[in-house]
Structure formats: C-alpha cells, structure tokens
Design goal:
About 45% of the residues lie in helices and about 15% in strands. With about 450 residues, it is of the alpha/beta class. The strands form 5 sheets. The protein has a 5-stranded parallel sheet with strand order 2-1-3-4-5, with helices on both faces. Strands 7-10-13-6-14 form a 5-stranded parallel sheet.
Length: about 450
Amino acid sequence: MNPILIVDDEQSMREFLSIMLEKEGYSVKTAHSAKVALHMIEKEIFALVISDIKMPGMDGIQLLAEIRKISPDTQVLMITAFGSTDTAVEAMRRGAIDYVVKPFKVDEIKIIIQNAMEKKRLEQENALLKQELLSLGGLDRIVGKSQAIQHVFSIIQKTANSKSNVLITGESGTGKELVARAIHALSQRSDKPFVSVNCGALPENLLESELFGYQRGAFTGAVENKKGLFEVADGGTIFLDEIGEMTPAMQVKILRVLQDQEFRRIGGVEDIRVDVRVIAASNQNFDQIIKEKKFREDLYYRLNVIPIEVPNLRDRKDDIPLLVGHFLKKYSPNGALSVEQECMDLLVRHQWKGNIRELENVIERAVVMMQGDRITIDCLPRHILDESASSGDLVVEIPADGMDFDRVIAEIEQDLILKALNKSGWVKKEAARILNMSFRSFRYKVSKYGISRIGSED
C-alpha cells in the first residue's frame, strides 16, 4: 500500500500524527505546507493525504483541488478547527472522504484512517478482479488427464511456492496463461494481486508506461500520476505474456527489475522497490530469437529458472473428449448436450493447429449451428470436414512416453475412411474406390469401427 502524507503547518501536529500512524504500521511522510505537499505528490503516489484546512498561503481546500487534478485516486482527509465545519463540509463536496474536528479523539481518527485505507485496498482488489475477468478467455480451469498435461500439473504443484521466475513455452492457444494463474493460485501469494499484461499487444512506449507507471508531466497527456503494473502487483505475481515480442530496449528495463527488484516511473526520480514473482510466456523459439539477436540471452536465463512447456493438443488427444464436454457446459449451461460419435472421432483426429483455443471456437460454433440436443458433423466447420486424406506424407509424432501402436493404426484407418466418406458425400462404393479398397473390405472396416450415417451404397 502506498504511504500516507500528513500536511500541517504545526510541527507538533505533524509529529503526533506521524508517530501514531507509524505505530499502526503505516508508512508516513510529512509536509509543512500545501506547496511542499504538491511537490511531493507530483513525485510520488500517496494512498491518503491528511491535511489541515487552515494553513498559510495555499489552504487545504485549494490543496484538495490540486490533488484531484494530479492524483485523483489519492484519498484526502481534512482536519478543521472547532467552529469551521462549514468549510469542512465544502471540502467533502469537492471530494474529501471525511473530516475531523480539533481537538479530536485518537481512536476516532484511527478508525477513520483505517476505514479509508481498507476502502482503498478493496478498490484496488476490485479493479484487479475486473481486469482478470475481462482478460480471462477460454477455460476457467485446466482440463485434462493425459500424461502430457499431468506432467505440467506436477511441475506446477512442486514449484508454486518457490520465489523463482517461471518461463512458460508452448504453441498459441495451449493455455499458457491458465498455467500461470494456477501457479499463482497455489502459491503463498494467492491472496495478493495477479496482474497480466500482453507484451506483444502494446507498442514500446505504452508498454513501458503500463509496466512502470509515470509521473505527472512526464510526457504529453500525462496529466496525473499513474501506478505501473509492477507496483500494482507488489507482493503478488505479474504475468508477462508474449515476452518474446518485447523490444531490446524494454528487455533491458525488465532485466533490471529481475536483478534488483526495483524500477523507476517514467519521469520519476526515485527508485521503487517491489516484491513480485515474474512468470513469462511465449510461443517463440528462444534458441532461434537469441541467435538472431532479437532476445537477450541474459534475460532468457533470468526468466528460465523454472521452465514449463505446455503440450499442444495434438499430443494430448485423450483430453479432447473432456475438453469438448467442458465447452459444451460452458456454451449451453442450461442444456444437456451430446456429441455424435462420428463427430467426436473427427474432433479427436483433427490436427489442432490452434490448439485449445481453436477447439473452443469450433464447439461454440457447433452449439450455435446444432438442431436438437446433439452435435453432428454437419455442425462442424468446412475445414475440418474437408481435411484431405492425401495432403502429403502422413506424419505421426511419437510422444516422449511412447504410444499404443494398434490404437494409432486404428485411428489412422478411421480417419482415412471418414475423409473418403466425406469426400464422396457418404456414398460408400465411391469412398471404397477413392481408397482403392474392395467394397467388401470397406464395409467390414466401417462395421468394425462403428462408423454409421444414412448414406447410399452406390
């Protein structure tokens, strides 16, 4: 939480409030005039300003108006002398959260400050929650039972409570952010912020201001102080997605944060120290981009303390039926939907280049296109149905943990038969001819694999 600033021309009052608040565990700074306070506010963000109303030169009401311009998120509590409550009420109309009348009771002001700081904390948490809900796409949890995804689960559980940086790699759409969120949720930082930023979605100047914040007047349009996401994530986790897209200049700044756990706002003069765990992710080949001098090798090693490679969907086909069921519930929560077996077979055998994100899009479309309560192959997009059976050499990847040869051969046979049937418009004799099979053998295979649809034999 940012510090509290006490503004009063009476030294005794500044010292009294400062000692009292520091005993309560708050970080406190003081200013003897509104002019000095404004200078401090332009350099630093304060959670709360406690200001006397009557001061020489600029008074508390004028200070309040300037604070609203420079740092509108900063709360202001006014102190007024007995008999000047009308002025205090005017201050509340202009945005002060409350006022206390001198002489005040210590317990009274403690409660007011405690409530103000708690309100500020809740506002920040709600803002982060809204950000997370808006940015949370795809699955709201990781779904899967395959050995490939179980291996990822194992790494997450073993390393969640570590302070070490994590680098998550994998193809686009595999669920890298979900892995990052799972690490945070299982860590001792779970009650602190999880902040996500897509490094590839913002130009360098905007990314720098998002990550590190800026001071008022740092550049054209900087009309108020703004916290950076590293500061917002203090105590928690920051997720730097698509870090491979980051420019070399930004990579140097990130490297400094990783080395020193501190940074400086744009236009700022003071270093800000934070306690943040960094989780980065990319779909890039780091060996290649390091070789091409597009990514710093020293930054790569700083990030890659705990490497996690998220498997693509082609290597976890056993999870496809589970994922299909998950998305059916997501896009039709009030209906009990099912998937026709031949449709599921096509989904399992499809080469998901877009991974889980592509599968989710296909199921969402199928729910919209379906008639009744079953998804059939007619609900699938054309590119899945028209996947050519003769599109070059057959490529079968052997997973690290081995494979079931008979099952794979059976899947290939089913795949070719379904493709031939789709190509022939489900005319079985024509499909047999396409595959250069006897009609008798073709019918045997169709029966063996339970492939059925009303179609012509001719």
